[in-house]
Amino acid sequence: DQQVKQNSPSLSVQEGRISILNCDYTNSMFDYFLWYKKYPAEGPTFLISISSIKDKNEDGRFTVFLNKSAKHLSLHIVPSQPGDSAVYFCAAYSGAGSYQLTFGKGTKLSVIP
Amino acid sequence: NAGVTQTPKFRVLKTGQSMTLLCAQDMNHEYMYWYRQDPGMGLRLIHYSVGEGTTAKGEVPDGYNVSRLKKQNFLLGLESAAPSQTSVYFCASQRALETGELFFGEGSRLTVL
User: Fold this and answer.
1) What is the DSSP string of B15-62?
2) Residue B80 DSSP class
3) Are B5 and B25 in contact (CB under 8 A)?
4) CB contact under 8 A, B48 and A99
């Protein structure tokens, strides 16, 4: 049973436009969400996070939106740049002594110059 | 500023052979993790450690053993490698559970023939 779902395996966007990556979750105990970015042959790197007490968190070109009632979060990248081309993983964490981040399968973003 | 270092980066084994992957972190983090990444599967937790001398099973622990004799090192062992263990392995460390942010190594690609 996949608790964190990224239903789009890939996404292509023109440089300068907005990239929207989506993530759905099923476990209502999740209270902290993170996005990781991964380039080929490298480890994932932390990008941005959001607590369940918020509905938006912004960091430069990256904004994460959380809709708890829909159990949905999205990552917006504006404007998209070719260097943003990578695989993006959504991850969720239930805190309170939980040691396990649950990851989605990832979405490969390609930003076309 | 090394962060999380994994050795070796690449390894080819024959079925039944044993090997150990070493993870070292220089950030004085308490928590350390071993994940595997397979195509279309995202990242899955194998084992984790909440401090020196402790280990625990994650989502997919079968066929692996771990040890955390020193705070900075987390070893992942395969006693009798199987082709199903062909994967990319990522080690990660974490400063505090509250943030959920993991710092990953660059990965170790293991092929079992």
Assistant:
1) TT--EEEEEEESS--SEEEEEEEETTTEEEEEEEESSTT--EE-SS-T
2) S
3) yes
4) yes
Instruction: Please report, in tens digits, the pLDDT of each residue of chain A (113 residues total).
Output: 679 999 999 999 999 999 999 999 998 889 899 999 999 989 999 999 999 999 999 999 999 999 999 999 999 999 999 999 999 999 998 766 666 788 999 999 999 99
Q: Residues of B at the A interface (Cβ-Cβ below 8 Å)?
A: 4, 31, 33, 40-45, 48, 50, 56, 58-59, 90, 92, 97-107
CA A12 to CA B18: how far, in whole Å? 42
Tokens found for residue A93: 């964490």
Structural contact between residues A108 and A13, judged by C-beta atoms closer than 8 angstroms:
no
**How many angstroms separate the CA atoms of A55 and A15, rounded?**
27
